[in-house]
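User: Fold this one for me? It's GTP cyclohydrolase 1 feedback regulatory protein.
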Amino acid sequence: MPYVLISTQIRMEVGPTMVGDEHSDPHLMLYLGATKRNMLGNHFWEYYVHDAPRIVLDKLEKRGYRVISMTGVGQTLVWCLHKESTENANILPNQDIAVNRPA
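Assistant: Here's what I get for GTP cyclohydrolase 1 feedback regulatory protein.
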């Protein structure tokens, strides 16, 4: 799973941080120390940690993930991270890409 979304509400300095949903990689969730829960009224499960987002981002960077975007939605902050996958590297052959350069 090359993409991970993490989010936090209200206070980003202290956590908790949501780190995954019910379909997230269980090995990665174990590495992060995440707990799976179902909040009353929600029809889905989520993984969360008590760590602040900065701690989670540091841990994910050590596993090869890089932040590709971040946004605020109301009082929620969301980060999207991506990890390059080597298992699909041979799908597209290496090819030279022409670059338009000004004359």
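One thing worth pointing out: The chain has two helices and six strands.
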